[in-house]
Design brief:
mainly alpha, about 200 residues
């Protein structure tokens, strides 16, 4: 029972951290602000997460678990690749959770600096995501997409479109139909005459 309470408290802290980072960015978020939001002292928060960096990594890992069906590959094929038709569902899902998308985008933007604690996480994550997308595209089209690109070259574009759409949508959600625009992009990848 104590373990379950501890896990619930950790989840509450991660949700509060998402909110604080979404509001202030990583550099502006403090352990004190997170602790206050969940009714803990800063020392009490450190019992669950010993450093701000540990808390950040836990938030990012949690976000990835949500996107991958709880870390069990729920939305992925056998080799860890997303099925192409489910990528649109992920984009629609993201459109329903702006706080998480805002936090991820803020951290991603900040992580390009050399000393950012999430830089290694995002570098590793993008390597894995590009490989997964390439595997998805290869499973769907073989070694060449209808437009002539290899799955590896198209994967870079696919990831760029997904993340770029998130930034545009966050800045102007009424003007950017994120799921619709992503569907348009998938149509371009599939080429003319492919109804899927």
């Amino acid at each position: 029972m104590a373990r379950a309470r501890s896990e619930e408290r950790r989840a509450e802290i991660l949700r509060a951290t998402l909110e604080v980072i979404a509001e202030r960015g990583y550099r502006g978020a403090t352990l004190g602000a997170v602790a206050e939001r969940v009714g803990l002292t800063q020392q009490g928060l450190l019992h669950y997460f010993p450093t701000k960096e540990a808390l950040l990594v836990a938030v990012l890992e949690d976000r990835d678990r949500w996107d991958t069906g709880g870390g069990r590959g729920g939305d992925k094929g056998e080799q860890g690749a997303w099925r192409l038709e489910l990528l649109g569902s992920l984009v629609e899902y993201n459109a329903m959770r702006p706080v998480i998308v805002r936090t991820f985008s803020a951290l991603l933007g900040e992580s390009v600096t050399e000393d950012h604690p999430a830089r290694e996480f995002f570098t590793r994550r993008y390597t894995q995501v590009r490989a997964g997308m390439a595997a998805t595209l290869r499973a769907e089209y073989g070694d060449t997409l209808p437009g002539g690109l290899s799955p590896e070259r198209a994967a870079v574009l696919l990831v760029a479109v997904m993340d770029g759409l998130q930034y545009q949508w966050l800045l102007d959600p009424d003007a950017v139909d994120m799921p619709g625009a992503f569907g348009d992009f998938l149509g371009l990848l599939r080429g003319p005459g492919d109804p899927s």
